[in-house]
Design goal:
The protein folds into two domains: 200 residues, Rossmann fold; 69 residues, Helicase, Ruva Protein, domain 3. Helices cover 40% and strands 18% of the residues. It is built from twelve helices and nine strands. The strands form two sheets. A seven-stranded mixed β-sheet has the order 4-3-2-5-6-9-7, sandwiched between helices. A two-stranded antiparallel sheet has the order 1-8. Helix 9 packs across helix 10 and helix 11 packs across helix 12. It binds S-adenosylmethionine (SAM). S-adenosylmethionine (SAM) binds next to strand 1, helix 3 and strand 3. The site of S-adenosylmethionine (SAM) has 23 residues, from strand 1, helix 3 and strand 3.
C-alpha cells in the first residue's frame, strides 16, 4: 500500500483522516511487518491491537499470531475493515473506545501469552499507556508507537524535565525501552512530530502490587502535581486529607529524604517507599 492508496481508500469510503482521533496511518507493509517482528509476536501469541485503522498493522500481526483482538473507535473505519480489510477469521474486530474496554477481561478471554501492539492514537496515548499498566501480570509485554516526547517522558530519570508520574509508575511496573524512531514520512497524513516505538516488559517480580497501584498513583501524582513546591508542600496541596505534617517529617526522616527536596529528585523506589509509609494516613 502506498500513501496515495491510503488517501484513495479513505476518499472512496467518504472518510478523512481525523486529527482529533490521532489518525496518522502507516502505509508501508514492510514497516508494519517490522513492528510485528520487533514486538516480538510469535505463533502462539494472542495480540490486542488498539486502533487498527485501515488494518495494515492488523494484517501483519495476524500473519504471525494465534489470535488478534483489534479495538477501533471509528465506525467508518470499522465498516471499511469489515467490508474490504482482508482480515483473516482469527481477527476479532471490536467497535469500541479502548479507554472503555475492560482490557484485563479481554486479555483473560484470549488466554496467555498475550501481547499489546499498537500505533497508538496520540491524543489519548497517556491514558491508554496508564491503562496498559493495569495489564501487567496478564501480558507478556507491549510494543507501541507514541510521539517521541511521550517516549522521553516514559524513560525519564530523576532531576530531568521529563521526569514525572508517567515515568515513575512505569518504572515501578515495567522495564521500558525506546526501540527506534519513525519519521513523519512513514505516515499518512504525516504528523508534525517524530514517533518512537517503545517496548514495555513487565517486571518480575513487580515491586508494586496490583492492590497498591491506586494509592501509590495518588501519592505520586500529588508529589508531581505542583513541581516547584517542596515535597511536603506538594503533598499538602495535592492530597485531601493531606498527611499530618509532623508524621510526614518523621517518615521523610526515617527514609533519609531531605524535606526541602522536590519530587523530581526522588528515585521511583523512594517514592514507592514514601507512599507505603503514608498508607492509611492520608
Ligand atoms: N493501526 C493503524 C496504522 O498503523 O495505520 C492506525 C493507527 S492511527 C495512529 C490510530 C487509530 O486509533 C485510528 O484508527 C483511530 O481511529 C483509532 N482510535 C483513536 N482513538 C481511539 C480509542 N479511544 N479507542 C480505539 N481506537 C481509537
Amino acid at each position: 500500500m502506498s500513501r496515495d492508496a491510503v488517501r484513495a481508500q479513505l476518499a472512496r469510503r467518504g472518510l478523512r483522516a481525523e486529527r482529533e482521533r490521532g489518525q496518522n496511518f502507516l502505509f508501508d507493509p514492510r514497516v508494519a511487518e517490522q513492528i510485528a517482528a520487533l514486538a516480538p509476536v510469535a505463533p502462539g501469541d494472542a495480540v490486542i491491537e488498539i486502533g487498527p485503522g485501515l488494518g495494515i498493522l492488523t494484517r501483519a500481526l495476524a500473519a504471525r499470531a494465534r489470535k488478534v483482538a483489534a479495538i477501533e473507535i471509528d465506525a467508518g473505519l470499522v465498516r471499511t475493515l469489515r467490508e474490504e480489510g482482508d482480515l483473516p477469521p482469527h481477527v476479532d474486530l471490536i467497535h469500541a473506545d479502548a479507554l472503555d474496554v475492560d482490557l484485563a477481561a479481554l486479555a483473560d478471554s484470549l488466554g496467555p501469552p498475550v501481547r499489546v501492539v499498537a500505533n497508538l492514537p496520540y491524543a489519548v496515548s497517556s491514558p491508554l499507556l496508564r491503562k496498559l499498566l493495569d495489564l501487567r501480570g496478564r501480558v507478556a509485554g507491549s510494543l507501541v508507537l507514541v510521539q517521541r516526547e511521550v517516549a522521553m517522558r516514559l524513560v525519564a530519570r530523576p532531576n530531568t524535565r521529563d521526569y514525572g508520574s508517567l515515568a515513575v509508575l512505569h518504572a515501578l511496573c515495567v522495564r521500558v525501552e525506546r526501540v527506534r524512531d519513525l519519521p513523519p514520512s512513514c505516515f499518512f497524513p504525516a504528523p508534525r512530530v517524530v514517533s518512537t516505538l517503545v517496548r514495555a516488559t513487565p517486571l518480575d517480580p513487580a515491586p508494586l502490587t496490583a492492590d497498591e497501584m491506586l494509592h501509590v498513583e495518588r501519592i505520586v501524582r500529588a508529589a508531581f502535581g505542583t513541581r516547584r513546591k517542596t515535597l511536603p508542600n506538594a503533598l499538602a496541596a495535592g492530597l485531601r486529607p493531606g498527611p499530618d505534617p509532623e508524621f510526614l517529617h518523621g517518615v521523610l526522616d526515617a527514609l533519609g529524604i531531605d524535606p526541602r527536596c522536590r519530587a523530581e529528585a526522588l528515585e521511583p523506589g523512594q517514592l514507592l517507599a514514601l507512599a507505603r509509609a503514608l498508607a492509611g494516613r492520608c
